[in-house]
Give the backbone structure.
Amino acid sequence: MRAGVIVFPGVNCEHDVVHAIEALGGEAELVWHRDTDLSGLDGVVLPGGFAHGDALRTGAIARFSPAMSEVERLAGEGSPVLGICNGWQMLCEAGLLPGAHIANRDLSFICRFVDTEVATTDTILTRSAEVGQRLRIPLNSYEGNWVDPTGTGRVALRYVDDPNGSQDRAAAISNEAGNVAGIMPHPERAIDDLLGSTDGNVLLESFLGSLVPA
Amino acid sequence: MTTVQEPLHRQLGMTDEEFESVVGILGREPRAAELAMYSVMWSEHCSYKSSRAHLGRFPTDAPWVVVGPGENAGVVDIGDGWLAALRIESHNHPSFVEPYEGAATGVGGILRDVFTMGARPIALWDQIRFGPLSEPKNRYLFKGVVSGIAGYGNAVGVPTVGGEVEFDDCYTGNPLVNVMCLGLLRREQLVLGTAGEPGTIAVLLGKATGRDGIGGASVLASASFDDESQDKRPSVQVGDPFEEKKLIEACLELYEKGLVVGVQDLGAAGLSCATSEPAGRAGVGMDVDLDQVHTRESGMTAPELLMSESQERMMAFVTVDKVDEVLAIASKWEIDSAVIGEVKDGSTLTVRYQDELVAEIPAASLADDAPLYNRPAEKPPWIEEIWATEPAVEVTDVAGALAGLLAQPGIGSSAWIHEQYDHMLFLNTVVGPGSDGSLLRIKGTEKALSVSTDGNGRLCYLDPRGGAARLVWEAALNVAVTGARPMALVDNLNFGNPEKPEVMWQFTETVEGISEACEALGIPVVGGNVSFYNETDGVDIHPTPVVGLLGLADPVPAIIPRLGSARAGMEVWELGPPATSNLAGSALQKMVENRLTGRPTPPDIAAGLSSVETALGLAGQAAVLHDISDGGLAVTLAEICIASGVGADVTTDEPFSEDPHRFLAVTDPGVIGESASARKIGTIGGNTIRVNGAELNVAEAADLFKGAIPSALAG
């Protein structure tokens, strides 16, 4: 079982995601955004950061990267596809998740731990968690305010408070099939007591548990 | 308006004497491009011409120093094949003229200094100072600088894990924006700024060169401000963190694959510096062809190309057989690159442009023959009078004074600032912003690095030598309370106009104070920066040295002392020498009297060393260790109570004294024994902060503390 972590120019959480997956006993490898063959991989993570410097809109250019056609193929086949922060923004731009992200309600960047609550376990991100479970995870974004005029996004995690104005207090959502998920806080930053929380483990374990041989 | 055209060298910020000395070196009148190169390289900012004579005082040796001052960053050996690179820089003047870009490009510049050494930058610390937030202009500058640091640091992907902020009238016309960077590298990846042997190829990597930032070092950073300074806005560079991010990754790949002989970043003085300095260091000459430089606007002249401070550029020196591979890696990371020169025998730097010889100068002369000024220094007559004027602060309402201090923007919570910065990237931040030292683990080892950056304009104004020494001691204690042993220091010396003897006195006293404290601690100064001419309309800032001290925890303490770990039933101990009643230069004096007088308590070497050792011994046993500084013991205790959400009851003779070498420990009973330097002052519990019987509710204290900056910004 092997996950690919796609490296777009300007993302910066790719090494952290690999570290977290390996710390949880999973296997991960970095994949350059120009690669067009992801056939050996059972799922992918689109990591956080500032792909292409957020030029135009967050995720707007990354969605055209050659590797994205393979991400679309995996998503269509039902494989787990997880976008974290900027990765979620890319998945919205690519049309793999509904809605889009705008600037935080207070127009400032937010980097701090936030409390979230599991809203459904019917996604690759939350299947090992329990509904109502509280998870304390670091948020780190400027465009974290998700809006979904279609109303089709399935909310997987809700903020307990409302840090950024996100619709339905959504901190994470999935598509209707549950195999493509986007999350704004960073679960990979909450896997170690030394750094303040291990609440991200259950989310990444859910993702790893969803990987099945291609 | 003046109609008479000044001679070119004066327009470029050079004196007539300096111009004559260029004529002397070349044996002829310089060409325009040559004059441009000398003007930037001999600027105060690049040449340290007013400070160099004094900087030799700093202790710079220790067995663990790998690279000392003079390179792009200092490098120390932290064991097991790991090295740490550190550097501090200022971007004061640009940030006043254009706060967002000024602060942003300050971050970009310090990062390049560190990854030039072969290191991956792992963390940033910002030290920022402004006039009071009651003035709209200061709010604009403060918000702009914080946004600029956030905008660049977050996007470039390097966490900002700490720093400090201070507000004082003296910074109204001249904010200070300093930034420190720490990098980590394996020993075999160390790269120096050398051009290598003759035949080596110079490859310019990164962003295309434009007209931005021309004369930034000479015109902007090395002169004082007046009403027309806003016209200097075109001298401020414009940052692009995305280009820098790609440049970092590309360079790190070049180092990993061993493809470069040397690297030099293009910061102040641009191509002039990135060609002459590496050639000078290697004792070689170089041929440069400016036609090869990739530009983003047409019609640039040779002086413009040589002086441009366009950001996100690096010069790599590469042997001929590796050039294609270097260009391919640049292309993979989607950055531009160009072969622009070749290292030659001899010592002449030759620059050609559009079939014309535009410069032919001794490469090393730009750095080595720079002017050296031993400017007169004189103790200002007013200082004795100020020393003789005792602070007139009488505290009748301890709780009211504490509440007032907690609401000061320079003392209250920095969350409004640091929550705009990514401070968690790379999964290293064990102790982040808002504490004493930041503690960063090194994954895959038992080690952690701790950094504290400290400045205090109030203290240094009243006593430049004692104040500067106290900064070093404070920083040492700050890293010690995280369990880390002090090992190296960088300093950023922010001063007024060096042409004034009293400013030079403040400067030399500061150098002496830092040196004395470093010698006592046995730590070397491995790099630094000097920023002079921090004056506006003839008024100088307080002398404001800022130190960044690196410590090593090996291993990381089993229990990390944290501000939020106090629990009911624990004991509160005051450690270090007993405080005196001296309030000179304290936050309380500033708040109550709105002036600074008296002579602050000097540091004490024996007490300082003893406190550092005590803190190191307690790290791993105590729940909380917290240095006593701004606002004294009462504020220190309140910070612990607010973070822990619990009250305390203590008795102390001097709740607001800021005397040095003291810290609080909160522990279970039985950990610490009473002695001359360890006094039990109370216990944790309840929901009020009680100091000598005066009470402040914890929730109320928390509101004041957390609201300090937001409510000041509300105007």
Q: What stands out?
A: Chain B has a mean pLDDT of 94. The first strand of chain B starts at residue 65 and ends at 67. The interface with chain A takes residues 150, 154-157, 240-243, 245-246, 249, 333-334, 415, 418-427, 429-430, 441, 443, 556, 560 of chain B (CB under 8 Å). Chain B has 24 helices and 28 strands.
